[in-house]
Amino acid sequence: MKNSDVNLSRRNLVAKAGLGAAAAVATATLPKPAKAEATDRTVQYAMVIDTRRCVGCHACSVACKAEFDVPLGETRSWVEYIEKGEYPNVSRQFLPRLCNQCSDPPCVRVCPTGATYKRKEDGIVVVDADICIGCKYCMQACPYDARFINPRTGTADKCDFCLHRVSQGIAPACVNTCQGRARIFGDMNDPDSEVAKLIATEPVTVLRQEMGTKPNVYYIAADHTDDGDARFQHQYLRVDTHRRAKERR
Amino acid sequence: MLNRRNFLKIGAATPIVVGGVALSNAKQLSVYSGKDFSPATGLERIAIPSACWQCVTRCPNISYVEDGRLVKIEGQPASIRTHGVMCAKGQGGVNQYTDPDRVLYPMRRIGKRGEGKWKRVSWDEALSEITGRLKKLRDDGTPEKFMFHYGRMKASHSKLIKSAFLGTYGTGTIGNHTSICEGAKWVAQELTWGGHYDNWDFDNTNYVLNFGSNVFEAGTNHIPTSHRLIARMADKRIRVVTFDVRLSNTAAKSDEWVPIIPGTDRAVVLAMCNVIMSEGLYKGEGEAFLEFCKVTPGASATLEEKVTALKAHLKDYTPEWAETVSGVPAAKTAEIARDFATVKPACVISYRGAVANHHGADTERAIQMLAAITGNVDNPGGRCKAVGPKWKYPKGPKNKPKSRKLKILDGLPGAAKLPNHHVSHQVLQMIKDGSAGRPDVYMWYCYTPVYANGQVQENIDILKDETLVPFSVCVNPFYDESAALADIILPDTPYTERWTWEDMVSPAQIPEYYIRQPVVKPLGECRDFADVCIEMADRMGFPLGIKSHEEFVKQSCEMTPDVKKAGGFEYMKANGVYHDPEAKPRYFSYRKALPPEKYLAETVVKDPATGVYWDWKKAKLASAQEALEKGYVATKKSYKAYVGQEINGVVYSGFKPDKVNKSGYFEIYSEIMEAKDLPAMPSWTPIPEYEAKKPDDLILTTYKVAEQIHSRSANCKFLSEIFHDNPAWINPKTAKEKGIDEGDSIKVNSSFGEIVIKARVTPVVVPGTIAIAHHCGHWEYGRYASGEVAPKAAGSPGGDERDSARIWWNGERGVHPNWIIGNVADPISGQLRWMDTVVSVTKA
Amino acid sequence: MNEVFWGLPVISYLFLAGVGAGAYTVSASVLLRGGGGGFGHKHFQIARYGALLAPLPMMIGTGLIIFELGTFTAAFENGDFWLLFRWIRLFLTITMSPMSIGSWVLAVCILASLVYAYTFLSPDAKPGDDKSSLRLAMAWVGVPLGIAVAIYTGVMLGAMPSRPFWNSPVLVLLFLMSALSGGVAGILLLKAIFDHEPQTDDAGGTEPAGKIDRSSYLLSASDMILIGFELLAVFLFIMFTYLTVGAQKVAISVILPGGSLSMLFWVGVVLIGLLIPAIIELKYVLPTLLHKKVYTIPRRVEMIVALVVLFGGFLLRYVVVIGGQITGPVGI
Ligand SMILES: Nc1nc2c(c(=O)[nH]1)N[C@H]1C(S)=C(S)[C@@H](COP(=O)(O)OP(=O)(O)OC[C@H]3O[C@@H](n4cnc5c(=O)[nH]c(N)nc54)[C@H](O)[C@@H]3O)O[C@H]1N2
Ligand SMILES: Nc1nc2c(c(=O)[nH]1)N[C@H]1C(S)=C(S)[C@@H](COP(=O)(O)OP(=O)(O)OC[C@H]3O[C@@H](n4cnc5c(=O)[nH]c(N)nc54)[C@H](O)[C@@H]3O)O[C@H]1N2
Ligand code: SF4
Ligand code: SF4
Ligand code: SF4
Ligand code: SF4
Ligand code: SF4
Ligand SMILES: [Mo]
């Protein structure tokens, strides 16, 4: 289909996309057919990041930048390196970061215009760029530095779990590219989903749990070391954020 | 028009239809769908299967187009090499297309060479001038005075440009970049098992021992191997041990990082072999494989003789001895040797860290020996002979002249004894030297002689000098440091805008056929250089009989049986990749017993000295008699006539030679080496510069990072945003001795020059060394790389300029280490010794 | 260094809104305390200064904040000038966000203060004139509105666990005290500038109209007390955070000795902005308070005190706003 068709209704749009896919090249992996009965269970999308499988390659960071043409200086997704120890007992751990799509999101709570909200349908926290005034209050409130002002629109922006893909039945761009398959995505309210199973069976953690945000990005084997710990342990520690903000916030 | 609000509102609220089925929840999310949508409009993007050419790996990809612009690249889910995943550099490929500093029109310099003043010329004008000169050289009978120097030119580009165009033109003065890359590795493999590209069968291995390969960040088959390794590590918890001079990401992910003094891996490998032989750990698979190994002079030996020979050779290479050379604790070496020999199958891997140094080729030979005596050669889970597709293609004119070449490709006299892949980093020095003649026309393609080699200043000086290089042509989509010194720049298309059939090897041990196709129309007047070559041949009056590169690819698709069977060109255009779904992975290729009709054929004789069966006709000899008289080894290029190897009475396909006249054995003992006064068996040879090194001198090594591809990717804004600075890593202990603190400016001096660079004091590097990443310190290559906007021929439209003002890493662009690395060669292979430069370091 | 999302515009805004709201509250209190006519001419004059002052800083501050909006900057970058008016969105809805509530409160406060100022506008304005009842009504709403504005700035910052430096209830108290003291200082300044009558008072005697400056005394004295409360708030602010564990303790260290804002805070805010004016005021107020001496203060001193208090108030906002942003949660 041509992507310059502009007057399609949304329904048409997705329906057409569907037909396109049916006729698509044999290489495309088509989603399995859904069960017939519709569920009224709510969906909460979640991501599990298995750092054991992460090689710190930054494919996710760049995939995300390209997917949205994120302006230089800003990041929806980034990978931190945590380097510590004394020679020769040293380590480097990788911590991919993105918006946690919190279940109790302070960014939503503080937004004065309602531009930021958590979608009931799938639990994704989104920013409506047509409403946002760019006051940056949400940026102050997010304990994960996940937000930025998109200089092109002047409005708040951040990872939206690739809503435009997910709503079409395909996984986020960063999940697609991840060579370690360290990023696993799905509906955590669906007990059969891989994310739900991983969360149930693996010792998962979330970032800054004490912030009370109830993140929906879970980590397996994340390294939670920070400056304070390192100072206390008299250890060398270097955290590289690989973004414009050189300090982790 | 859908606005954002509507989009957000409608989004997933209603059941979504994908592939004609309604989806009600998340379960059906497809990770590798081969589809993408615009985040702004929600409309589907057009998907075009093509292939990456950011790095040498050349992964198949899917490129997405919106409003006629390339907007996104993903992995190709149907690829057995990549399984649909992709690296950061591949993702960053979108920036190659939108780079606002692209060269879009042919440009000719005005003013002095290197002054940076250009005017736009038409293709006709540019090609008239170039072919005018080339034709004259050819007509004068001196085609060799046209030197063509290429870097990453592969597959159909190589066939069309090198074989067809240059072959028909008649010059043999063709340089490559293998010696600055991995030449030592190839030479070593040619000496041991013939041919090159080892594949590491991570899918099936249970142990990985790594010498100087940064699998997770680099590697010539990067994504195909790295995603397999991490999967195996995570799923099977296999053990991975990495020897590196610094904590690469690979070392960091390994179960164990063993720090090692640069350039000394061979000592450790020899000591491991010593442990394995002396403790009898070779028994079993290793012992069995020894049947196929040559360990002694002569055609054959018993197992006992072989074992004795190995033990005797390795006797003095004890772990304790290795510790004195490499700094690796003896106990550690012994422990790893025992593990490696016991866990089956195990895979020993190696890359430039192990070989880009003095006698690096011998290190690779030692590593081959280690694989051999543990029986981990070409077996499932071991170190395998790589498998790639075999394309058939049009060869161009039948009657090609015998090519003539200037003897400037193999380095300064005495530089290397087995420069099978040339000594390309000394080409400019040879031009300066002049004793072997000088090219009149120096043209380079996919290559940057200035930036990618050592001794940058000298490269600049020579290229600038019109008495040494009278006329130079750079073929490039971008304005790099070398383009700045050309007389004419021909705008090539980046890989996103051209045709190629591709052939990189497959770690699945099953060949994968794939093509690259233009994703978007070439910008400006950019043209695929292969098409330009076709036109140049026409202009010079020797048409290649090939209409275009597209046509070449098309014909190749129809000529290649596997591809033809699949549906030929149309199939490849629609799907991008093909592999035979019935194919089984290939292992033990050497163990195939030849059917008698093969080796008893009329033109085949057995060489008594080596046990090799060879075809005297193919060797261009007159008779069997002549063949027997001359002997296999002494006949020029007899390796091309190899048929099989007799081993204990059976004629096997064996380890087929390539480039050198070796036997069909896996040669641990090499008479070819011996004949050149080099160690016949892998051996330790002291490094002269280390012997002369002052106590407080350091050793400089260099490395690649996951987010950049040597010289060519710093123009990708998304990549340079992540990696743009390369402070020198220095261990706290060493730094303290020199009074260097984190962030200090330091002077690094070698016998080739001095750089001033920032220090990063970190325990993740071996004391006594400093490690400086490649890729940084550009002074051209556009705004994202260097901050310098590339000069434009007047009136050319810009690319995507929106981000130019947002570059935030000005002033943090690092320093290129190659200013102070010498264009010195491994005396065996000619490989540039990137990893063992002796330097003195002081606080600036 | 962490990136600072809210810079000088927001800092100035917080300061100016505080001064304006403070002035409104103080003016209204003074007016109401005197039953609309107060303790005579001087008090009315003071209320008048406050009333005329109040809307200005609030409006300027609010105007400034527009410069900090991302939409404002982007309007120029991509030439979409509609973006300049995007802030109107704030008033198309009301949410539980402190900024949303605060914006409404501020808007109402500005409007009320404008009406209030209007009642004082005529040079002939005096207690009991024809605008009296409107004036009184506006004074009645002014007290809670002014306080609400002062408080909301503190709530807005204090509401976020992600900003441990701000995340303290004491911040509200601190901002309230500082706003009131800023209001007083603003009034004192205006008075010192425009009021050329001698600054004397026989302390508690009858009031020979026009001669005695009991109002000035009242202002200085209350300012002194406000500063006292502010010092207390500073103390509590530091202790509460210092005595906890984790992020807040780390965050507060930016203003403790060795911290990057330490000098600015202790010398600028505490010493210059609080202690020095308090001591000066003490010097003039004490004799009156203890010995019922006639209250006199040179105009120039009064001016300096007012300026110094205002300066301290600005620095306080500066240190708090920056301090909150260069610190953050600890751990990961
Ligand atoms: N990201 C990325 N990938 C690439 C490329 C790229 O530029 N960028 N280039 C491609 C090309 S052309 C090539 S040839 C390959 C190269 O792939 P690799 O050879 O794997 O990569 P290098 O970084 O050249 O070197 C590997 C490692 O050797 C280490 N090393 C240095 N000296 C020594 C030593 O003496 N002993 C040991 N044991 N280790 C040492 C370095 O620290 C480094 O981690 O990568 C290919 N893939
Ligand atoms: N210090 C240090 N130096 C190194 C290395 C290292 O690890 N450390 N690695 C070495 C290795 S392994 C290698 S292989 C070499 C690589 O050295 P090169 O082959 O020279 O490097 P490339 O990055 O492939 O790019 C060369 C030039 O090709 C141009 N180019 C990019 N795309 C295209 C295209 O589509 N068409 C054309 N015509 N030109 C294009 C760019 O201008 C770029 O400058 O570098 C070597 N140099
Ligand atoms: S991570 Fe930050 S931006 Fe994302 S939902 Fe949570 S609070 Fe909001
Ligand atoms: S910047 Fe936009 S999304 Fe964030 S709080 Fe302000 S209005 Fe809401
Ligand atoms: S889910 Fe999408 S938006 Fe979020 S980090 Fe991944 S690619 Fe970026
Ligand atoms: S793409 Fe995957 S493996 Fe690479 S850094 Fe991101 S999460 Fe880690
Ligand atoms: S490994 Fe190389 S070829 Fe493959 S995606 Fe990455 S850059 Fe492209
Ligand atoms: Mo290379």
Explain this structure:
The complex is a heterotrimer of chains A (249), B (844) and C (332). Chain A is an alpha+beta fold and 249 residues long. Chain A has one domain (32-245): Alpha-Beta Plaits (2-Layer Sandwich), CATH 3.30.70. Helices cover 22% and strands 21% of the residues of chain A. In chain A, strand 6 (148-150) and strand 7 form a beta hairpin. Chain B has four domains: 107-181 and 402-502 and 513-576, 3-Layer(aba) Sandwich (Rossmann fold), CATH 3.40.50; 183-385, Dimethylsulfoxide Reductase, domain 2; 593-653, no CATH class; 688-843, Barwin-like endoglucanases, CATH 2.40.40.20. Helices cover 29% and strands 17% of the residues of chain B. In chain B, the strands form nine sheets. Chain B has a seven-stranded mixed β-sheet with strand order 7-6-19-18-17-8-9, with helices on one face. In chain B, helix 10 (265-278) packs across helix 14 and helix 21 (549-559) packs across helix 23 (568-575). The longest helix of chain B is centred in the first third of the chain and has 17 residues, at 123-139. Chain B is globular and about 75 Å long. Chain C is mainly α. Chain C has one domain (8-326): Formate dehydrogenase/DMSO reductase fold. Chain C has helices at residues 8-33, 41-53, 55-68, 70-77, 98-120, 132-158, 170-194, 214-242, 247-252, 262-291, 299-326. In chain C, helix 1 (8-33) crosses helix 7 (170-194), helix 6 packs across helix 7 (170-194) and helix 8 (214-242) packs across helix 10 (262-291). Chain C is globular, with a radius of gyration of 21 Å. The chains are: A alpha+beta (249), B alpha/beta (844), C mainly alpha (332). At the A-B interface, helix 1, helix 2, strand 2, strand 3 and helix 5 of A face helix 1, strand 1, strand 2, strand 3 and strand 5 of B. The complex binds ligand MGD (2 copies), iron/sulfur cluster (5 copies) and molybdenum atom. One iron/sulfur cluster binds next to helix 4 and strand 7 of chain A.
Topology, please?
The complex is a heterotrimer of chains A (249), B (844) and C (332).
Chain A: H1 10-22, E1 45-50, H2 59-68, E2 77-86, E3 89-98, H3 106-110, E4 116-118, E5 125-127, H4 137-141, E6 148-150, E7 155-157, H5 163-166, H6 173-177, E8 183-187, H7 194-201, E9 204-205, E10 217-220, H8 227-232, E11 237-240
Parallel strand pairs in A: 1-10
Antiparallel strand pairs in A: 1-8, 2-3, 2-11, 4-5, 6-7, 9-10
Chain B: H1 4-10, E1 16-18, E2 21-23, E3 46-51, E4 60-66, E5 69-75, H2 88-91, H3 94-98, E6 107-109, E7 118-120, H4 123-139, E8 146-150, H5 155-169, E9 174-175, H6 178-181, H7 183-192, E10 198-200, E11 207-211, H8 222-236, E12 239-244, H9 249-253, E13 256-259, H10 265-278, H11 285-290, E14 293-294, H12 303-314, H13 319-326, H14 330-342, E15 347-350, H15 352-355, H16 360-373, E16 383-385, H17 427-433, E17 441-445, H18 449-452, H19 456-464, E18 471-475, E19 488-490, E20 500-502, E21 513-516, H20 529-539, H21 549-559, H22 561-566, H23 568-575, E22 577-578, H24 596-599, E23 604-607, E24 612-615, H25 624-630, E25 642-647, E26 650-652, E27 666-667, H26 671-675, H27 688-691, E28 698-703, H28 717-722, E29 728-730, H29 732-737, E30 745-750, E31 753-761, E32 769-773, H30 783-786, E33 837-843
Parallel strand pairs in B: 8-9, 8-17, 11-12, 11-15, 12-13, 14-27, 17-18, 18-19, 28-32, 29-31
Antiparallel strand pairs in B: 1-2, 3-4, 4-5, 6-7, 6-19, 10-16, 20-21, 21-22, 23-24, 24-25, 25-26, 28-33, 29-32, 30-31, 30-33
Chain C: H1 8-33, H2 41-53, H3 55-68, H4 70-77, H5 98-120, H6 132-158, H7 170-194, H8 214-242, H9 247-252, H10 262-291, H11 299-326
The site of one iron/sulfur cluster has 16 residues of chain A, from helix 2 and strand 3.
